[in-house]
Design a protein that fits this description.
By secondary structure, this protein is mainly α. It is built from 7 helices and 2 strands. The radius of gyration is 18 Å and the shape is elongated.
Length: 196
């Protein structure tokens, strides 16, 4: 509705305000949350694979909304757009809670350090990767706001990016934390409590 189509000015303001908050938050995290000193880097480039997948999907989705208006979602366009705004805001909130729950232990680079323990407070009580769940919800919301079927199809890129990142991270944590992390995996889901 907002991208490539005329919409209510309030819709445009809402979208760009939430989008801007997301971009600013992600830029801040990228700059302020490196691996702690003494931690072993186990990222294997997954951070950059994920960043590329997310931004390719977002940029191509926005472009598709403008360049291919014939792929517009034909029914309940305003409802789809509004659902996208809600998902964007909720995703930012979930990611923020996840980052806050880990505090100074949160890093944008996968790593392990001697004496590291499983942290299972806040949203980590229910899922192992609430930060990724929040991010994926935000990206899904952005692509919904494009109200374009091609944009929605591009969601496969961040899904694959997060799946790769989770595999790398869980292998690193199993290697670094051993049985404690294995037990944590048995009692939690990856992204959605009780489901996934």
């Amino acid at each position: 509705m907002i991208i490539g189509q005329a919409g209510a000015p309030a819709d445009a303001w809402a979208f760009w305000a939430i989008f801007g908050a997301w971009v600013a938050g992600e830029c801040w995290l990228q700059r302020s949350r490196p691996l702690p000193a003494g931690a072993a880097d186990r990222d294997q480039g997954s951070r950059w694979v994920l960043v590329a997948a997310v931004w390719t999907a977002v940029a191509a989705g926005m472009a598709a909304a403008v360049v291919v208006p014939g792929a517009r979602i034909p029914l309940a366009t305003q409802a789809v757009f509004t659902a996208g705004l809600v998902l964007m805001a909720a995703g930012i909130g979930v990611r923020g809670l996840a980052v806050a729950a880990l505090g100074s232990d949160f890093s944008v680079t996968i790593g392990t350090e001697p004496g590291q323990r499983v942290r299972d407070r806040g949203p980590y009580r229910w899922v192992r990767h609430p930060s990724y769940a929040g991010s994926l919800a935000t990206v899904t919301g952005i692509l919904l706001c494009c109200t374009n079927l091609i944009a929605l199809g591009l969601l496969i890129l961040p899904i694959l990016g997060y799946a790769h990142r989770i595999r790398v991270e869980e292998a690193a944590l199993l290697g670094g934390l051993g049985e404690a992390y294995r037990a944590y995996m048995r009692r939690t889901k990856r992204l959605i409590p009780f489901l996934l």
